Amino acid sequence: MNDLGPEARSIVEAARSADVPTHEDRARIKHGVLLRVAVLGAASTAASGAAAMSVATKIALTVLTVVALGGGSVSLWAWKGRTAAPPIHATLPKRAAVASEAPAVVTEARATAPEPEAQPDIQLDIRRREVARGVSRRPELNGSPESEGTKASAPGLDSLDQELAVLRQAQEDLRAGLPAQALRRLAEYDRHFGKGALEEERRAVAAIALCQANPGPAAQAQAERFLRTAPESPLAERVRSACRKSADTEK
Amino acid sequence: MRSPAGNTREAAGSPSPTAGSALDFDAVYEDQLQFVWRTVRRMGVRGADTDDVVQDVFVIVHRRLAEFEGRAQLKTWVFKILLHVMKHYWRTHQRKPGDRAGENETEIQSLIEDRANGPAASLERVEAVRVLDRLLAALDEDKRAVFVLAEIEQMTAAEIAEIVEANVNTVASRLRAARQEFEKALARFRAHELRRQL
Asked: Which residues of B touch A36 (CB under 8 A)?
């Protein structure tokens, strides 16, 4: 095989050593990865934990979970573009229909995937990107003076790992049909991490757990509070669906 | 392409699964990030999208790590994931390898902004990256992938063949063509620079 000439070789070798991720790059990207894994995990929890969920949602979440596990790169773009920024008024059938396009993507790389940029709401897209990058508007993550008084300041990776561990355990409890135990774990999370990096995810899982454990006005109020304060959360629809069904069951 | 003994494949310290053991994501991340990061940037991802694409790769790695059985090199397995992510990126972004328009808008600007003031940065190396990306933009997607793996990541033909799912002869042929196109692009670039100076 013909080798490169000396000038071409020197360009390649100089460039090879020029582009190395810094410690900040490493931490920032890992933070983003773990956040996204946590959100995907919470979504699958919602899917598996509820008898209380509509068929359409189950299909959508199953597809998303399969897609994520199946490793379709496209699926992740699809996930980022679709579920991270759902319109508040999004309906379940529409979401299910959108998500169900994804499997073709997993098995066949030529399938079409949505443009993340196609999201019409710029603010929601910005939020999606912030989540994906591990950036939060919450002051405690940015180390602003407003964060004083909160239990957690800018989280390190160790702290994030611990938060993730508690949330995963809570998810396992939900899968096992033990929402009360999940709530106890989440209370433990509160004591240890306060408003940690995954506070939004914690509140979503807590709302789902409460709706499963004790459907009623208090559970509805907590779900509504979550939806009011985090309407563009990727988990908003899961919370809405889980708590709507539990309210129907109570009637 | 280097011989296996001379390449930069994972050293003895890299994580490798033994029978029945699971790899630790943190170790894999630490071990593979530099490779993924550099390759993503060399494959034509715009600077602003680098984090997103690298995260896509590692989210999939995280999800599928338990499936990795150690039959392939970890780096090979990770690159296969990366290649799928890149293919989607190319499909969903108008600029592809080989598109000359906008080639200067890849990650060059962010590289300069991010690193020009860093203690380890040098203008020569930043310039080398700028030139390299401009030349790589002349290659199509397949040749670019083979060139990056062979010349920058110094993988062997057999490793590349496994990654791109082609036989070794095909890889050798693509690399030969990629090198020729790269040299031609370099000659054009130098001629252009010369004309600008006259």
From this structure: 55, 59
Q: What is the CATH number of the domain that holds B73?
A: 1.10.1740.10
Containing structural domain, residue B57: 1-96
Q: Give per-10-residue mean pLDDT for chain B (198 aa).
A: 39 48 81 91 84 91 85 85 87 57 41 44 70 90 92 90 91 95 87 69
A-facing residues of B in 31-70 (CB < 8 A) are 33-34, 37-38, 41-42, 51-52, 54-60, 62-64
Considering the domain architecture, whether residues B31 and B61 belong to the same structural domain is answered as yes
CB pairs under 8 A between A and B: 142
Structure tokens at B117: 């003031």
Cβ pair A138, A201 in contact under 8 A = no
**B191: in domain:** yes
- Concatenating the DSSP letter of every residue in B108-137 gives HHHHHHHHTTSTT--HHHHHHHHHHHHHHT
Interchain pair B52, A7: CB under 8 A: no
Report yes or no on B112 lying in a domain: no
Give the model confidence (pLDDT) of A161-179 as tens digits.
677 778 778 877 887 888 8
Q: Output the pTM of the full model.
A: 0.50
Q: Is the ipTM of this complex over 0.95?
A: no
